[in-house]
Write a structure and sequence with these properties.
Layout lengths: L5 H14 L2 H11 L5 E6 L5 H10 L3 E7 L2 H18 L3 E7 L6 H4 L6 E5 L7 H14 L2 E15 L5 H12 L13 H11 L2 E7 L2 E3 L4 H18 L4 H16 L4 E13 L2
Parallel strand pairs: 1-2, 1-4, 2-3, 4-5
Antiparallel strand pairs: 5-8, 6-8, 7-8
């Protein structure tokens, strides 16, 4: 399974928070209204960014099961969120679990959760894994709230002739195996929507793009370097053609002259019966 550093997760957390689609967040809160104690299963929780965004909004008594395969991220999250919960005075209990999200479906423990949620996970998984997850959610009669799934769109300002070629290679890389089997990449949100509707869910999807101005130079740089690395893996023979493109992108970011929009989608699904 592909891993992410705590530093990268910290860099993207405020950008993710700003990008989340407000209409779907409001739909989730309307669904929550009038319900009693809420059990939430957070998949690929990392250090708990999804928890820190949603728990204060959901309110009331909540029990979160936060699962991830990375013990370093889980330890960091448990440390950070323990103090955060104590300071916030919320009626909130947290259960951090190390789980192999690829194969250990028993430990995943979907049963008993009223809400299954994830952030920045969906585009990494395969169609087979997704089908299994939707079956488990339906069996548990759980609502599903999955946000910030990459949709394949990357738009730089100023634009350059090489933008489309690099994006194409990045999207090819997105569909390679990230540990779950061949990844759905930019097709993930639509695949989940179709799978949930087949199982009787009402489903809404909405855009949640990152909008990175010059002040987000560190994140722009991290994305640029990561995308170039991915593109090299897919088309190493084209690296010379990207050299000038990469140099100009780096220079514009350093000069505060670069803007970047990266497309994502949010999804909320709930039972209609």
């Amino acid at each position: 399974m592909s891993g992410f550093s705590a530093e990268w997760l910290a860099l993207r957390e405020p950008v993710d928070a700003a990008a989340r689609n407000p209409e779907l967040t409001t739909r989730l809160l309307n669904w929550r209204r009038g319900r009693g104690p809420l059990t939430v299963l957070d998949l690929a929780s990392g250090t708990g960014a999804n928890l820190r965004f949603l728990a204060p909004l959901l309110g009331g008594e909540q029990h979160w099961r936060l699962v991830d395969h990375d013990p370093v991220l889980l330890a960091r999250g448990e440390e950070q969120c323990g103090a955060w919960v104590a300071e916030g005075g919320m009626d909130l209990t947290l259960d951090w679990r190390r789980v192999d999200l690829v194969d250990d479906w028993e430990a995943l423990d979907v049963d008993g959760a009223q809400l299954v949620t994830a952030s920045a996970l969906l585009d990494l998984v395969s169609a087979e894994w997704l089908e299994r997850l939707t079956r488990r959610c339906r069996d548990a009669r759980a609502a599903v709230f999955v946000v910030l799934s990459y949709d394949g769109s990357i738009a730089w300002e100023p634009a350059l002739a090489g933008d489309d070629a690099v994006r194409e290679q990045v999207n090819r890389h997105q569909r390679t195996d990230k540990g779950f089997g061949p990844a759905l990449g930019p097709d993930a949100t639509e695949a989940l929507a179709v799978a949930l509707r087949k199982r009787g869910y009402e489903v809404m999807t909405r855009p949640s793009p990152w909008r990175l101005g010059p002040e987000r130079w560190a994140m722009q740089t991290a994305l640029l370097e990561g995308w170039v690395s991915a593109a090299r893996q897919i088309a190493p023979e084209a690296e010379d053609a990207w050299a000038d493109w990469l140099a100009r992108r780096r220079r514009w970011i350093a000069q505060g002259a670069s803007r970047l929009q990266v497309g994502h989608e949010d999804l909320f699904a709930w039972e209609t019966e």
